[in-house]
Write a structure and sequence with these properties.
Elements: H1 2-11, E1 13-18, H2 29-37, E2 41-43, H3 51-56, E3 61-63, H4 65-70, H5 74-89, E4 95-99, H6 108-119, E5 123-127, H7 132-140, E6 148-152, E7 166-170, H8 175-185, E8 194-199, E9 208-213, E10 227-231, H9 241-253, H10 259-263, H11 270-286, H12 289-312, H13 318-331, H14 334-337, H15 345-360, H16 378-391, H17 399-419, H18 422-442, H19 447-471, H20 481-493
Parallel strand pairs: 1-4, 1-5, 2-3, 2-4, 6-7
Antiparallel strand pairs: 7-10, 8-9, 8-10
């Protein structure tokens, strides 16, 4: 019985044919013959200029336009159409499914049907048609052999334009899509980059061609399902930024370069790496994106600087650095680059630590606490050390327990303060800070960032005191503590 069922499935067939770009003159004789013979033709959409011609030819058809009205996204629409085709196939075979243009050019439903049919061992037959692209090439007078990239305008977030060649965007079918396309393309092209908008390419009497600057794309009044957009190559006379940076660093370190840059080594550069890192953090906290762009460049320069020194000493190159991080990211994200499944970000972190532990397994360590850079700022260092200890079970169970330890340390600070012993007081204050870090960690907060936030808050309030003092015509040194405290309270309210 199972073998007979399989044989029935194999006998099923989906005939997929192309209706051409839109002119009745451009429908192939083969496609017409198949449609006239079929009892019913299933159109992906009736919104195609050849539909009235099909009616005159006596071809019986229906369409899946109703799916577009019910679907919330194009992905859902295409999936639903494929499901409907396979459902119809159970009752009738063969099924004739017709799409605009050529079936294998820019037709997501066709690709999906072919993939599923192959898995189910269902026969498929392609009846080719002239694609809208063929008509576009003629209208635009471009040779695709010189390089053309075809992009679905609805997938521009996944498909990026290639600036070295011409790009054709399909399905720019309304003003909303045109607006989204325009904004996306402006990340790659100048606002004034010339584009050619073509409607109904190859259809006599309906064809429309306009050349406009990119920023006017969503201002056109003839946008519909027959509209495509052509972007000519964008002349690339700009140097590759990455290569230029490497060249600059090599020049600075050369015998003819900068004396200061030539004198530096890994150790001497440590303070600058740390400074640039903190400047990046500061711009992230202030939200000044133009400054963040600049500071990230400064930080990147430090990385390139170290790589250049290492290359000169035949230790490693910047390419080795990139290859190392590329491999690490792929290795530590098996849920993205392999077949591992995760439910949430917590599982991602668990997998990360497990993979990291396997990588470090062969490294000889004398203590569980090894591997934390001692150069880290003290709060961050304490946080990392506590994390290491917690992994082997040396930890408070709840933040409340850690807070009780803070109270204990606070009492000991009070005792040491009364004793007047500075050495003892310093030790107890250190213990108090360490205990507070524990509370922050158990509450999943970063003490380093919390303290930086408080410092910024203090700076803003102190600046308010300075500004108000200036209005009063007083220097801070001329103000009483009571006056400054009153202004401080006002700053807090603001």
């Amino acid at each position: 019985m199972a073998e007979n069922d399989k044989e029935l499935v194999i006998l099923q067939e989906i005939i997929i044919l192309g209706l051409g770009p839109g002119s009745p003159d451009l429908i192939t004789q083969g496609a017409l013959a198949v449609m006239k013979k079929a009892p019913l033709v299933y159109l992906r959409t009736r919104k195609h200029p050849v539909v009235p011609y099909l009616e005159k030819q006596g071809i019986r058809f229906t369409s899946f336009d109703w799916v577009y009205e019910e679907g919330e996204s194009f992905t859902q629409v295409y999936q639903k159409i494929c499901q409907e085709v396979f459902s119809l196939l159970q009752k009738n075979s063969p099924i004739v499914y017709a799409v605009p243009g050529h079936p294998l050019v820019g037709e997501i439903t066709v690709q999906s049907l072919l993939e599923q049919a192959k898995k189910l061992e269902i026969k498929t037959t392609i009846v080719p048609g002239m694609s809208a692209l063929d008509a576009l090439y003629s209208v635009l007078c471009v040779d695709p052999a010189e390089g053309i990239k075809i992009i679905d305008a609805l997938s521009l977030d996944k498909q990026k334009p290639d600036l070295e060649m011409g790009n054709i965007l399909l399905q720019v079918y309304n003003r909303f899509v045109a607006s989204e396309v325009k904004l996306s393309l402006m990340d790659f092209y100048p606002d004034e980059h010339p584009i050619t908008v073509v409607r109904a390419a190859g259809i006599t009497g309906e064809e429309k061609i306009v050349e406009i600057p990119l920023y006017e794309l969503d201002r056109l009044d003839f946008l519909d399902h027959l509209v495509s957009v052509y972007l000519p190559p964008y002349p690339q006379d700009r140097e590759d930024g990455w290569s230029k940076l490497l060249e600059i660093m090599a020049a600075l370190r050369s015998p003819e370069g900068c004396p200061w840059d030539r004198e530096q080594d890994h150790l001497s550069l440590r303070q600058y790496l740390l400074e640039e890192t903190y400047e990046v953090l500061e711009t992230i906290e202030t939200g000044e994106m133009h400054k963040l762009c600049e500071e990230l460049g400064d930080l990147l320069l430090q990385i390139v600087f170290h790589a250049q020194i290492a290359e000169e000493n035949s230790q490693f190159t910047i390419d080795d650095v990139l290859e190392s991080i590329n491999q690490k990211m792929i290795r530590r994200h098996p849920h993205v680059f392999a077949d591992v499944e995760v439910e949430n970000s917590d599982q991602v972190l668990v997998n990360w630590e497990q993979i990291k532990a396997l990588e470090k397994k062969e490294e000889k360590k004398t203590s569980v606490l090894d591997g934390v850079p001692p150069q880290l700022p003290a709060l961050m260092l304490a946080f990392k050390i506590q994390q290491k200890a917690a992994k082997v079970g040396f930890d408070w169970k709840k933040a409340q327990e850690a807070w009780e330890k803070v109270q204990e340390e606070l009492s000991e600070v009070g005792v040491a303060l009364q004793s007047g012993n500075k050495e003892e007081l310093g030790e107890e204050l250190g213990d108090l800070l360490f205990a507070l870090v524990n509370v922050c960690r158990l509450l999943k907060m970063q003490p380093e960032l919390l303290l930086r936030g408080t410092v910024e808050k203090f700076k803003k309030r102190f600046a308010y005191i300075e500004q108000e003092g200036e209005k009063m015509g007083k220097e801070l040194t001329q103000m009483s503590l009571e006056e400054m405290e009153n202004l401080w309270q006002k700053a807090k309210k603001q």
